[in-house]
């Protein structure tokens, strides 16, 4: 095992040594709950979930950073709700405020757009947007971490410094989403320690997608892996800034292969990939093999299991990917 304050290495297969039965049974104060909402299929019913459940912070994807570097506001189109439901509209903004304490506008992007964009202009656009709509802040979700160069990473940190400073001066908040890894050494430029001194209010390690390292049939979030990363992140950021990202989704793949297709729980159930599946003790997730294919699902029980684990470690904030087509606590 690595030093708890060092994120350059992490447990790999020992992730499976910790099981559901190892989680302590103690009464804790409930976490501050956050959740991501993205637009269109298959998550159209996301608004039904947040209207019927107490979710403190909603992270709603309204902006995409395009490959040409432009920032595009995604607007809900009443004639095409299949593709745009839950995107930006004045009515959707009003509902977000009605059903949550905080609203963070998610900006989704990848490395091609990052290299092409004018970060100074993006900062101005995003700060003006949240001020105009009187929303809480911005959630930056720039991924394809494996393609970032040292220059990309430096520019990203400079962007976060500038955006966070502007938002905080306007009494707004900044959240960032960061990667996890299963290898002994980090495969990315990203170092969590670099963000400790930056003006980021919510640091959100996305502790899921384990299957992309080990192939079809692997859990999405093994409990041992979740435990190790949670302990590590708490040491760096403390509970006030740390928001642990946990999954509410599933996938289909060929066993042992990487033809992974993410699916909602509703989609998996419609394909008969859930009923009579087996509960995996290392993750709390439901795994069902159909021929040479395997379905892995997160349902309410597996979510509660992960929540209990991170709360038992001292976490006070959790964010769930994602609302719409999936279970809630």
Automatic annotation (TrEMBL):
Residue stretches making up the GH18 domain: 33-329
MF-aspect GO terms: chitin binding; hydrolase activity
Source domain of life: Eukaryota
SUPFAM superfamilies: (Trans)glycosidases
Keywords of this entry: Hydrolase
Keyword Hydrolase annotated: yes
Family: Belongs to the glycosyl hydrolase 18 family.
Protein name as catalogued: Chitinase domain-containing protein 1
Origin species: Basidiobolus meristosporus CBS 931.73
